[in-house]
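We close this part of the discussion by returning to an individual protein. The sequence in question and its C-alpha cells are set out directly beneath this paragraph:
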Amino acid sequence: MDINTLVKLTSRAWSLNILALLHAKVPGRQAPLLAATNASRTAFATSLAHLIDLGMIERNPGHGHPLRSEFRLTPTGIKAASVASKIIITARTEDETRLLRKTWTVPVLALAGTPHRFSAIKSGLTIITDRALSSSLHQLEERNWIRRNIDTAERMPFPTYQAVNAGKEISRAVGLPL
C-alpha cells in the first residue's frame, strides 16, 4: 500500500476497523459490523461510504434486501483489509485502539520505520500541517510508539524520529518500501 492510499484510508476513524472485521469474516451487513465496531451510526456510515468511494468495498450485487444491503471486499480492499487486520491486532488496550483511529497515527508510523527528520516526515505526508504532525509525534512518543533521538554528530544537532515497539509493528504491517 502506498502512502497516499494510506492517508486517504485513515482519514475516517472506523475505516481500518471495518476492513479488519471484513477480513476476519464478520458478515458484511451494517448491523453486525456496527455492533462489532461500537461506533456511532453517523461515524460508521461515513466510514463505510468512504470505503466505497475508495473502491475497497462494494455492495454485493443481487444479495440481500435493498434496505439492508451486504458489502464485500473488492480486490483492492482484500489487500488493504489484510494490512488493516495486522494494524488493528497491535492495539492491546482501548487507548491504543483510540490512537489508531486518529487520522495521522498510522501514516506517521508507516514513514517512521527508519529514522527520519521532522521535515522528511512532513514531505512524505504532503497535506499534513506542522501542528498536526507535531501533535501526532508527541502522542506517539507518549505512547512509546516513536522514539525521538537527537543527532549530535552534525554541526547543528537535530532530532530524528523512529517507530519502536508496537509502532514498529504497525510500520512493518503497512510495508512501505524503504
Observations:
- Residues 75-89 form the longest helix (15 residues).
- Residues 90 and 166 are 6 Å apart (CA to CA).
- The chain has a mean pLDDT of 91.
- The two ends are 12 Å apart (CA to CA).
